[in-house]
Specification:
Number of helices: 7
Main location: membrane
Organism: Leucothrix arctica
Oligomer: single chain
Protein name: Glycine transporter domain-containing protein
Radius of gyration: 17 Å
Shape: globular
Order of helices and strands: HHHHHHH
Largest sheet: none
Strand content: under 5%
Family: Belongs to the UPF0126 family.
Distance between the termini: 68 Å
Structural class: mainly alpha
Subcellular location: Cell membrane
Number of strands: 0
Number of domains: 1
Amino acid sequence: MSFELLLQILSVFATVTLAISGVLQAARSEMDFFGALVLACVCAVGGGSLRDLLIGATPVFWTQDLIYIFAILIATGVTIIALKFIPEGKGIRHLLLDTVDAVGLGLFAILGAEKTLQMGFAEPIAVVMGVITGIAGGMMRDILSQNLPFVMRGEVYASAAIIGTISYTFIRLYFPETVAIVAGMGIIIAIRLISVYLGINIPQVTFRREKK
């Protein structure tokens, strides 16, 4: 398998995972089919589109290959059907949302950093673009569904992407690119899922209350 084919497979898989998370969020917000499709599209391609615009990689990635559109449509339809068989009120849908979102975050963040480096940008820029790629789609999804984005409510989300993309930029200096990509993705997914399951949060910024 060529390196380019591996990147495309990972990119399509990341698109599918975030499309699923968009549909799950739509279901939690009791949206209709069109609302679910909109959230799936925005979540799946929002971050990558913003990255491509910022680094000048235009036309943006999903406009150059119809496989991304087909992947979103199929993922949306299958997820809507599957939701009929997932019981409500037991936390299963919320757990599934956290899981697929963590996978999408890890894959897209590293793919975003890798593409930025391939465009000739420095490592710090690659880290920033990787984080944007990973979190922007989810932020758009949450805003459209009138929810406070994960990244703004004290959860270990953007910080997981930052740690993972920084790790990726260092690992690739000593190991093959494929190893660095897989390791970076694994680090992000692991940090995010561990924080979710253990209830680890980032301290919130609050004003000091004056004593009366």
